[in-house]
Amino acid sequence: MHNGSPLLPGQRDFQYTYGQAYDIARRALAALGDIEDQCRRSGTSCLTEGPTKAIVLSYLNETYQISLPDAAIQRQGSRRPVPLRDKLLILHYFLRAKGSPLSHKLITYKELANGINYYPTFYKRAVKPVVDCFGDRPEALISAAERLGGRQVAYGDTAVTIDAFSRVSLTWVLWQGDSELSNEGSILFDNTIADYLPTEDIAVLCQTVAWTLVRLAKKEEPQGG
Asked: Is pLDDT above 70 for 222?
């Protein structure tokens, strides 16, 4: 989300960095000449009401609206504040979208630009939480993913695909261990994902979804007492 090393939440200055990046993205949106064309590229829609315009898009199974020209972002039908991290992901997705059709050829994070160098941190923050939470109860992963509009798919022992944006899908794959091997997991992407988000944004998106899945699963756990 910036020019330099990938940044994930948890770094000390991420709020400041996100704020700067968000301001840059807002200016880029304001300078965009053809909003309708970029809507076509990103699979979003342009809503016009009198003199005002807004971009409408789906993000993690919720509908968001980007007001123009100020780039204010809100959930439709909700007053819940949108985290700065999510606002930035939404703007970056819209601005970067090239309109590439899905290839249905899947790749891992290691195959993205600079992904192999950052993979250990990516695994720790985006893959391991899902493996730890769902490795021994894969049915809970399916249930949590469905609450995000996801669906079960046929990879590994258990896998789910979640459409983060209309043209960005994330597939979590789990392999259950045994007495000798630990549970393991991975995340797969269509190989066009870099036409919609840069490598560091993909890491942030995956971490965001991973911890959302964990939180959803914990809410479904029976309460003791």
From this structure: no
